[in-house]
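Progress against Task 2.4 (sequence-to-structure conversion) is shown through the following example record, which the project officer requested during the mid-term review.
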Amino acid sequence: MLKLNFQVSGSFKMKIQRSTSLEKRTKLCHATLDNFVDLGNRSRRSSGYQPAVWNHRLIESISSHYDKPMRMFSYLQSRANSTTSDLNYLVDSGVPRRRSADYQPAIWSHQFIESIDTLYDKDDVKARIEELKQGVEQLLKETEDPTATLELMVSIRRLGLAYHFQKEIGDKLQEIYVDGFKSLQGLKETALCFRLLREHGYNVSSDIFKKFKEGEVFMKCLSQDVKGLLSLYEATHLSIPGEKILEEAKEFCVKHLSSVSQDVDINIAKQVRRSLEDPTHWLIPRLETRYYIDEYEKEEEMRSCLLELAKLDFNAVQAVHQKEIKELSRWWEELDLVHKVDFSRDRIVEVYLWANGTTWEPKFSKCRKVVAKFNSVAFVIDDFYDIHATLEEAQLFTAAIRRWDLKAMEGLPDYLKLCYLAVHNLVNEFAYVFLKDFGFDIRSHLINEWIRLCEAYLRDTQYIHEGITPSLEEYVENGWISIGYPCMLVHAFYFVGHNFTEKSLDLWEHSHQLLYLTGVLTRLMDDLAPSKAEMDGLQPSAVFCRMKESGESYETAKKYIKDQINIYWKKLNEEVVNGDHPQIFKDVSINSWKTTFTMSQYGDGTGNSPGAAKDRVRSLFFEPIPME
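Structure tokens generated for the chain above:
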């Protein structure tokens, strides 16, 4: 039985209800229907009703495009209160309907960035820093006790000052390595030494911790050594595959540190809580420095000259970073790409944080600016593929990138011509700088990176438009490239000042394992903080791919991905220790993962940044440390 629904007046409903006979009700309905029929040129009122949102073509497509229960549920849930569909390939319309990621405007405006001023780029500050450096250098020479030396080096490193004393620290570590830990007895100093040596690329054995075990378990008396447990816990984050003793050590430390007594010094208790939440080895170096300066000021063994140097140096380096942010903001405003395309993130400060987390030292200024520029344009291209493109547009753009010919953009829509030119100009700019500085042409290598990246973007777009949730293995096989980190790292490697040869320019071949492991880690970690499209089920993620193939709940699948992150983290540690790569490449790769961890902790740090991400940006770049 066909049921028609249309709006009628209250008086008509009353008449229908009062008419008890079928004949009377039928006559009333016929009379009312006559009022809705156009009998010629009679003037009619309009209800203003819009065409059907859910057209026949969309309904027919449901079985073929959305046969995945999770995706269908997520799709309907996200569209429950919507009046239009944003899936352009499902809506029968002359104008493509675009999806939206609901990105908010930039938090840090160009006007705000231009207004930044600092007192810490003056000559008197630089002179005072040099005086204090001499004092700390002398302190390193005079400190002979092995435990005191280790603690001093760790403090220097955590305070962000190690780049001033690389030779002195390197010499001390070599002496300790040759000594073979013979002079170290306690848990704290043994763990500190292990951690420092591993961080500097020494392949030290974890067997040194066997002396702290009784049979198969760690000594019970260690449970009361909070500082020792804290040092051991931090050291376990440098483990490599197969180191069972470090797995046992981490479990032992977490168990006892999680139940630290209230009688413990309040500053130690605070360090324990922060370490359990944010392990030192997983944090952006500058953020760890910012945290530790506050902690070091309250330590009993605090040295005033070291504290003053740390504060002044942090503020002086921050002034360098502020200058770079201003320069990048002007470049971004002049490029004006994000406003012309009107669908992408406007996040120049946040992308600079990614670059800064990878290489923060003042001497790497050129590298930071290259990486920040790359990320800014790559984010626009990523958003094009992820949330804006029709499948046909994505295929056209990818084909044009493959051709790498300005004539190829003739068939592109106007807004894509801008994107295409932006990518071309960026590659030419970087290739020119590298040729000028180092005498090698890297243009073909950069082009290959962009082709690889856009082809991976296209595969992700096909998942979206074809309604496919791939297997986890298939997803990661493409996702470690589409996350963008391998391409970003190649740009970073070229501009960290390494002495290249013609043969070593092909980083995809010579540093492939570093690129691969970092790419997998960042993909998995990024997917633990899913975007709006991923949460809606419109875009695959590692967690949802795992749910589909295993039938697990969201939380169980999420735990599985976390376990995979730990596995790949150990593999990256192993590559850093044993791989034949320049040390600076290893440092950049480790730091890039730390940046991902830091930015993904409280949501998508470059989408719609939550308060935590905003506070971190402010403390790193816009608020100097008080010198009182």
